[in-house]
Design a protein that fits this description.
Layout lengths: L7 H10 L3 H14 L8 H8 L8 H10 L28 H16 L3 H4 L5 H13 L16 H21 L1 H20 L7 H23 L3 H18 L2 H17 L3 H15 L5 H17 L3 H16 L15 H15 L2 H14 L5 H17 L3 H15 L5 H13 L7 H24 L1
Length: 460
């Protein structure tokens, strides 16, 4: 039997931090609790780690974070547990609101301090699975009571709602990177201090939790739009936990639909379809027709990505049937963007992914005609699809003209997703590589986007 080698790196870091086995064990438990995770460890556990035993799961990350709080910044590699780098650092949500609030605090703190383990984290399929299972199997809010609930007022709720709506408009118009840091700072300064005092056994408390969840969902969407996918997943996970505490089934469905959208974008098509189905199943009977149309549209998009034409057609049909029953005045503020133009755009995305370029083009034209000019990013997406459809139909000149307009718009957006759409369009031009018009467009696009990146860096 191979003997374990003592973990001299962990011992050295502990010595520099001046902590004992008992002290480290206590701090690791406290750190895990702040992330909503229950870890049982004591001085004996620490002795085993020092003797060379490899703790599993998220424990190495909590050890590193606990030691970081005692002085120097410490990574799992620094404590001789580099194997844990393969396990993404994703703070899990807890059913207890205390853990929810603590988890939000840790996430916000890590984001504001640009902690690479938080900001640069990778997405985890397990986190998506956990979200679905928890939402569907244990949907109810946990029972709890707090004496300090009077700190939350109707004004607190309204302020969060109106601020979320304001930031959402900036996101639509300028991209997720424009105001993302400001949103995080607002959460840290105005919401986080109140969150730990919320009582979910009062109507006002549940409203505050719902509005906070909606703002966290927006923070997630902004992170997703700027390419910070692991961070976005963590914000969505926290938002879903708060929606669950609030008993807000429709908002929870919207958050799961956002997870579905991100999973689809990253190529996790089967997961995307399941997340959309979870949104629909969990919110059925509690969501407006508009929300149900959205959930079905997200499933349709995931199925189109898989090439499942029959399944996509069925889901799009369900989305249409729900949308026909829509009453916009019944929808919450965060859902009112999903209008006729947005539904047409979803059809366009699906037809594009299935290879029906003429049908995609027709849906794009409908979406563009109906869309509010506020939704600059969404219009950029569908107009890129339009350009692709023209090229696929042999109308190269027309496609390049539309794409030039898109590039000009995208250059002013702080959105990684819109830039990817442009890159994907350029890849479609490979078969025309000897065409001078294509060379001119590629030069224009590369130059314009590079200049925009330089200007954005200079403005920081």
């Amino acid at each position: 039997m191979k003997l374990r080698e003592p973990n001299h790196q962990l011992a050295a870091v502990m010595a520099r931090a001046g902590t004992s086995n008992k002290g480290l064990a206590r701090r690791v438990q406290d750190m895990a609790a702040r992330h909503g995770v229950d870890i049982r460890c004591d001085h004996v556990s620490v002795k085993r780690w020092l003797d060379g035993m490899h703790p599993r799961g998220m424990t190495p990350h909590f050890i590193a974070e606990a030691l970081s709080r005692l002085g120097e910044r410490v990574s799992v590699r620094d404590i001789g547990m580099m194997y844990a780098e393969a396990t993404p650092f994703v703070a899990r949500s807890s059913q207890r609101a205390e853990s929810c609030a603590a988890g939000v605090s840790v996430l916000i703190s890590g984001d504001l301090s640009a902690n690479p383990r938080v900001v640069d984290s990778e997405v985890s399929s397990n986190a998506w699975n956990d979200s679905m299972v928890t939402w569907l199997v244990a949907p109810g809010a946990s029972a709890r009571s707090r004496s300090a609930g009077q700190l939350i007022t109707a004004g607190s709720v309204e302020a969060v709602r109106e601020t979320t709506a304001l930031f959402a408009k900036l996101d639509y118009r300028f991209g997720g990177g424009h105001a993302r840091s400001t949103v995080v700072q607002y959460i840290a300064m105005e919401i986080e201090p109140l969150l730990k005092h919320v009582r979910a056994d009062t109507a006002l408390g549940r409203q505050f939790l719902s509005e906070t969840a909606a703002m966290l969902r927006l923070a997630a969407w902004m992170a997703y739009d700027t390419g910070l996918h692991g961070l976005a997943q963590q914000y969505m996970t926290k938002a879903l936990a708060l929606a669950r505490e609030a008993g807000d089934r429709m908002l929870g469905g919207r958050i799961l639909a956002g997870m579905s959208h991100q999973a689809n974008y990253l190529g996790h098509y089967g997961m995307s379809a399941n997340l959309a189905r979870s949104a629909r199943m969990g919110a059925e009977g509690a969501a407006t027709p508009t929300a149900m149309a959205l959930f079905n549209a997200m499933e349709a998009r995931a199925l189109a990505s898989q090439g499942d034409e029959a399944g996509c057609s069925r889901a799009l049909g369900e989305a249409e049937r729900w949308f026909e029953r829509r009453r916009p005045e019944d929808d919450p503020v965060w859902l009112r963007y999903f209008d006729e133009a947005e539904l047409a755009a979803e059809f366009a995305h699906c037809f594009h992914d299935l290879g029906y370029h003429r049908r995609a083009r027709d849906c794009v034209m409908e979406s563009v005609q109906l869309a509010d000019s506020l939704y600059v990013r969404s219009l950029s997406f569908v107009r890129t699809i339009l350009a692709t459809s023209h090229v696929a139909s042999g109308e190269l000149e027309h496609g390049l003209a539309v794409a030039r307009e898109v590039v000009t718009t995208v250059a002013d957006l702080r959105s990684a997703r819109t830039r990817r759409y442009v890159r994907d369009f350029v890849k479609q031009l490979a078969r025309f590589r000897n065409d001078q018009r294509v060379h001119e467009f590629q030069t224009f696009a590369e130059t314009r986007l590079a200049r925009a990146r330089s200007e954005a860096e200079a403005a920081k």
